[in-house]
């Protein structure tokens, strides 16, 4: 006779172990163990098999409680949500735009075409203008051709391709209001098509002129940021550093900078976003003529206190950088944003100099191509 006895033992061991690194640092470990014990019994009193099967054994590390300095105070007015489960990827892209895709609304309603045409790269803008020009004229040329080329006075009746080409160039003359006079419309329908095209051409050139002017006159902060942030030696400590520089012939004054650390942490068993303001060595400079290295000293009050190279490698976090400055050419304030995720932080490095004097010692040379140059150093 075979009898099976099954016992399931579940227990949770939760231990909080405090390990001192410097002044304060805690490490919380929660271990959940589920052990199933299967006893096979043959006969009334003889155990032939005794087996242990471990079904689950996993560790949940709330590592952020180990990392974040308890002296650091979180910010609430960042504009980003606290629910970590609702966020995907980084908070801000490298170009400074919010990493958000809007859904639940029609595509045409979600796009501001004016802002899109002002912000797209120059080559895309020119391609769109040229394509629009030829597509519109091809459309009206097709209407003239379908309405009858014989209604266009001055068209030489030959091959179909030749007649369509003449209708196409007549469309261009009407669209641009050039009107050479070699070809003219005849009849009500052809004249109506030409009138509609002339009006459409006037409106199109008015919009194109406004877009060209908007792209040229839009104030921009012509600032480049270094590709990486670094953890570098700073006095008798270490510091988080990143570098920026102007790259156009503009004069920028009253430059201000702010830096925020955003991290995904676990609070009361739920993942949340926490944001910490990082104190900078200099938050404002009177004139931004050369490169500017933003420095956050990692002191005992910094949320980065006791961070190691492994922490930057294994944890999820992002440094948000906000810049404001005054452009005297446009006589207005311009802004620039960027961000660095932890994988873009180089631990143990220092930036190389990126400016020098010229040969006759009459000017300073700003080497833009050296913005990202750094060398590895050992941190004590």
Number of helices: 7
Series of secondary-structure elements, N-terminal to C-terminal:
EEEHEHHHEHEHEEEEEEEHEEEEEEE
Strand content of the residues, in percent? 35-45%
Mean pLDDT: 80
Largest sheet report? 6 strands, antiparallel
Question: Which class do the helix and strand fractions yield?
Answer: alpha+beta
Quaternary structure annotation: single chain
What Rg is obtained from the alpha carbons, in whole angstroms? 34 Å
What gap, in angstroms, lies between the N and C termini?
71 Å
Poorly predicted segments: 1-66
Helix content: 10-25%
Record field, number of beta strands: 20
Give the overall shape.
elongated
Summary tags:
380 residues; alpha+beta; six-stranded antiparallel beta sheet; five-stranded mixed beta sheet; elongated; disordered N terminus
What does this structure look like?
The chain is α+β, with helices and mostly antiparallel strands and 380 residues long. It is built from 7 helices and 20 strands. The strands form 6 sheets. Strands 4, 10, 11, 12, 14 and 15 form a 6-stranded antiparallel beta sheet that branches. Strands 7, 8, 9, 13 and 16 form a 5-stranded mixed beta sheet that branches. Helix 4 crosses helix 5. The chain starts with a strand and ends with a strand.
């Amino acid at each position: 006779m075979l009898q099976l006895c099954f016992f399931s033992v579940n227990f949770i061991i939760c231990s909080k172990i405090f390990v001192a690194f410097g002044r304060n640092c805690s490490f919380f470990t929660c271990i959940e163990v589920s052990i199933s014990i299967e006893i096979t019994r043959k006969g009334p009193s003889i155990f032939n098999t005794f087996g242990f099967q471990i079904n689950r054994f996993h560790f949940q590390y709330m590592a952020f409680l180990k990392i974040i300095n308890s002296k650091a105070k979180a910010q609430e007015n960042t504009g980003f949500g606290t629910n970590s489960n609702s966020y995907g990827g980084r908070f801000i892209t490298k170009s400074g735009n919010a990493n958000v895709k809007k859904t639940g609304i029609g595509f045409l309603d979600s796009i501001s075409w004016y802002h899109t045409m002002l912000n797209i790269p120059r080559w895309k803008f020119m391609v769109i203008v040229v394509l629009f020009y030829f597509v519109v004229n091809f459309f009206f040329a097709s209407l003239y051709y379908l309405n009858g080329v014989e209604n266009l006075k001055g068209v030489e009746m030959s091959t179909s391709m030749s007649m369509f080409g003449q209708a196409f160039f007549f469309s261009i003359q009407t669209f641009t209001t050039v009107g050479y006079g070699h070809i003219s419309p005849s009849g009500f329908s052809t004249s109506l098509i030409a009138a509609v095209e002339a009006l459409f051409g006037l409106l199109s050139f008015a919009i194109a002129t406004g877009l060209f002017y908007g792209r040229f006159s839009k104030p921009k902060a012509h600032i480049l940021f270094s590709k990486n942030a670094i953890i570098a030696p700073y006095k008798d400590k270490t510091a988080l550093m990143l570098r920026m520089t102007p790259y156009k012939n503009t004069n920028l004054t009253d430059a201000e900078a702010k830096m925020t650390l955003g991290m995904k942490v676990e609070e009361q068993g739920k993942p949340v976003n926490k944001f910490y303001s990082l104190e900078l060595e200099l938050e404002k400079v009177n004139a931004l003529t050369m490169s500017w290295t933003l420095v956050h000293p990692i002191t005992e009050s910094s949320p980065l206190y006791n961070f190691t190279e492994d922490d930057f490698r294994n944890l999820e976090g992002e440094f948000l950088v906000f810049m404001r400055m005054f452009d005297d050419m446009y006589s207005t304030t311009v802004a620039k944003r960027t961000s660095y995720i932890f994988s873009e932080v180089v631990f143990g490095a220092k930036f190389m100099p990126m400016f020098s004097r010229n040969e006759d010692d009459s000017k300073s040379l700003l080497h833009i191509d050296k913005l990202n140059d750094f060398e590895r150093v050992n941190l004590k």
